[in-house]
């Protein structure tokens, strides 16, 4: 399975802080926001990744992430000239996807949970489409799943006043390669966008939309507002400072999934700890502590 990170949009709800930069390049505690979806894909066992962004910002993503080889990955880049909807990612990324299955993750979504990688890896060869259900106390704010009596998905409702369940759909989706042609046939909505909901409904009509419920304790943030970004900042800081964890570190994920070995991780950590503007950040030192814990 390959992965796509959609990191476009204008981030108008984060102005003026987002003026002149992409939301996904802004920091959440000690690392750029885009590191978090990269880490989620790596934990799912995906290391061929396409980043899609605007013409103005794509170069900044290339400068930040490079070709991915340091993390045992292959990164590619494509431009979305206009914000034509989430499902437009499959049209833009058609050549990248080819005949492979593909995961789409939104560049402003943070996922974290014990065993999350193993959970995601169960669904990386989908027969159709897989969306993930996450329990939330306020489902009316999101796209909400309705379940049939046998537990299968019956419908997805967008911000319903009377939610049929407490499970919403976060910004992570798995599809087979037919998603490219499906996306190409979707008519733009009244907003002028190729809606991901329309793609999911296409699979649902075929009986090929599966829902995987994420563990109850899964932490998730949609970092689209100042308050959401502050919540994410505080949560990541608390987890890392109190528990010594690494949240959203691609180097750690690449090591855990076997894309790089201990020597490569140590080299990355030492280079990042003692060179450039990372000399005093502590990021490299945290990677070294993680490596010592994992190999002691």
TrEMBL record:
Keywords, in A-Z order: Magnesium, Metal-binding, Nucleotidyltransferase, Transferase
Single GO MF annotation: metal ion binding
InterPro entries hit by this protein: G1P_thy_trans_s (IPR005907), NTP_transferase_dom (IPR005835), Nucleotide-diphossugar_trans (IPR029044)
Catalytic reaction annotation: dTTP + alpha-D-glucose 1-phosphate + H(+) = dTDP-alpha-D-glucose + diphosphate
Enzyme Commission number: 2.7.7.24
Domain of life: Bacteria
UniProt keyword Nucleotide-binding, yes or no: no
Transmembrane residue ranges: none
CC cofactor: Mg(2+)
Span of domain Nucleotidyl transferase: 2-234
Family of this protein: Belongs to the glucose-1-phosphate thymidylyltransferase family.
The protein's role, per its UniProt record: Catalyzes the formation of dTDP-glucose, from dTTP and glucose 1-phosphate, as well as its pyrophosphorolysis.
Protein name per the record: Glucose-1-phosphate thymidylyltransferase
Species in which this protein is naturally found: Euzebya pacifica
Lineage start: Bacteria, Bacillati, Actinomycetota, Nitriliruptoria, Euzebyales
């Amino acid at each position: 399975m390959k992965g796509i990170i959609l990191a476009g949009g204008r981030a108008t709800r984060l102005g003026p802080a987002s003026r002149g930069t992409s939301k996904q390049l802004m920091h959440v505690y000690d690392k750029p926001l885009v590191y978090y979806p990269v880490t989620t894909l790596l934990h799912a066992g995906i290391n061929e990744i396409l980043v899609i962004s605007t013409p103005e910002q794509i170069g900044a993503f290339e400068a930040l992430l490079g070709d991915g080889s340091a993390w045992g990955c292959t990164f590619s880049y494509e431009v979305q000239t206009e914000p034509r909807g989430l499902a437009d990612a499959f049209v833009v990324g058609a050549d990248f996807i080819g005949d492979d299955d593909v995961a789409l993750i939104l560049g402003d979504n943070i996922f974290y949970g014990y065993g999350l990688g193993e959970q995601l890896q169960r669904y990386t060869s989908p027969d159709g489409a897989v969306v993930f259900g996450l329990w939330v106390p306020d489902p009316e704010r999101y796209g909400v799943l309705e379940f049939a009596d046998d537990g299968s998905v019956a419908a997805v409702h967008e911000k319903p006043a009377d939610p049929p369940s407490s499970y919403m759909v976060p910004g992570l989706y798995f599809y087979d390669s037919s998603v490219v042609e499906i996306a190409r046939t979707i008519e733009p909505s009244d907003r002028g966008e190729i809606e991901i909901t329309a793609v999911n409904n296409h699979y649902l009509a075929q009986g090929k939309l599966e829902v995987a419920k994420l563990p109850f304790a899964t932490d998730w943030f949609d970092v689209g507002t100042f308050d959401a970004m502050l919540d994410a900042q505080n949560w990541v800081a608390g987890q890392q400072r109190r528990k010594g964890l690494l949240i959203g570190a691609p180097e750690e994920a690449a090591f855990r999934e076997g894309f790089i070995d201990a020597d490569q991780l140590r080299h990355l950590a030492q280079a990042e700890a003692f060179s450039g503007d990372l000399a005093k950040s502590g990021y490299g030192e945290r990677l070294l502590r993680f490596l010592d814990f994992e190999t002691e």
